Amino acid sequence: MTRVLITGASGFIxxxxxxxxxxxxxxxYAGVRSSSSLKYLQDKRIHILPLELSDPEKLKLKWQELKTxxxxxxxxxxxxxVTQVVDPLDFxxxxxQCTQNLVQSLTEANFRPKKFILMSSLAAHGPGxxxxxxxxxxxxxxxxxxxxxxxxxxxxxxxxxxxQVPYLIFRPTAVYGPRDKDFLSxxxxxxxxxEPYLGSPQQQLSxxxxxxxxxxxxxxxxxxxxxxxxxxxxxxxxxxxxxxAIAKTVLNKRTLPIRFPKPLVKSIAFMAETIARLMQQTSxxxxxxxxxxxxxxxxxxxxxxxxxxxxxxxxxxxKGVREVVEWYQQNKWL
Length: 334
Ligand SMILES: NC(=O)c1ccc[n+]([C@@H]2O[C@H](COP(=O)([O-])OP(=O)(O)OC[C@H]3O[C@@H](n4cnc5c(N)ncnc54)[C@H](OP(=O)(O)O)[C@@H]3O)[C@@H](O)[C@H]2O)c1
Fold this sequence. Notes:
This protein is α/β, with parallel strands linked by helices and about 325 residues long. It has 11 helices and 13 strands.
């Protein structure tokens, strides 16, 4: 049976990757931390694999031990990563260094997979042209604007520089779906009749529904494509006000649009980050997030991805929002 290791399996996207793998004839190894919640990893077919991605020696020992009773993983989907941190250096420690640790330890233990998939981010590329608002093209030069984006780009650069393991890099845009808490607060504000704009209502956005992302990744495993990076979106670009309009329709709410001036958002982000850091906590709104929220162009051209993998997303934004809102309501999150 084909063996697939998924790191960050306990998280939002990771848990859907695991479910997608189980739907297909794959043997799934869920890479987790000792502190990870196993709430969404209850299926008995899942092999839970505690991994210390920050410790290359321990990783190497783990592969050497596994090697005594099983062949190497056919595929590794390296999805573990941090999107919010207390100390910005943790972006580099986790998103870049752990990627390197994983690839190097697999190589040194001679436990190399046929393909290594990196879950990067559109943030590694950075926003598109703010004047023309032309969608970001895969061939454009990456110019990440956040610590997060830079750490993801560093991970990509490491992968492209090594010769030991065939790889594919995916740069998903905003991922939404059941179990995600980041989008929840947006739907809550709509529920309470508020339509906040931290940037321009014409801000260009792109999205991918988590189930489509998981299907796309598994589609790519057995393809003969490697050594490239791909954007991952539903193939459409939307404006911020279109997102609000869809949410309003689905939630059947009338709202009051409120536009926050950029300097105010910046000050609030700075204060929220400072207070959170003092409390050793992460803040959803911080200076990195401010830069993302106020960049006007996060539209991207994912045609190459959809064509290369002959992939048809099952969800556009409206269909995805309907499903996720239903899930939030059923689970009493909204
Ligand atoms: N959500 C998005 O919109 C989006 C968009 C583009 C790319 N991505 C990327 O997709 C991946 C998954 O994101 P997500 O939204 O699913 O986030 P998430 O729910 O926070 O999941 C992150 C996963 O990574 C694990 N992890 C974090 N730090 C780790 C460490 N030091 N060592 C080992 N495992 C660690 C977490 O383990 P614990 O459960 O133990 O914390 C969790 O399983 C990330 O690489 C992220 O950068 C996300």
